[in-house]
Design goal:
Largest sheet: none
Radius of gyration: 18 Å
Number of domains: 1
Number of helices: 3
CATH topology: Methane Monooxygenase Hydroxylase, Chain G, domain 1
Length: 89
């Protein structure tokens, strides 16, 4: 437990940030899954729409420091590759 007022405040701030990060990370994963599941079903329009919604969430996660920019680029690339593959089929 925190011993000083400063460490108590820092502990409270850390917990607030952790809760916010948990919520946002969950939303991020949900939007990514929507793209993946749409691609698995073979529905091009649904998948493309889900991708357009997911990209700003991914970019926002980078800005907030939740994920690394290279991970964001990799996620967007892989999701887009699924859409391209779906459109070719």
């Amino acid at each position: 437990m925190a011993n000083s007022a400063q460490s108590l405040k820092r502990a409270k701030q850390a917990e607030k940030r952790r809760q916010r990060n948990v919520t946002f990370r969950s939303k991020l994963r949900t939007h990514i899954k929507r793209v993946v599941y749409g691609a698995d079903e073979g529905n091009v329009e649904t998948t493309a729409d889900a991708y357009k919604i997911a990209v700003p969430f991914i970019d926002s996660a980078v800005t907030k420091g939740l994920i690394h920019k290279n991970k964001a680029a990799r996620l967007k690339s892989r999701l887009n590759a699924r859409i391209v593959k779906l459109q070719q089929a």
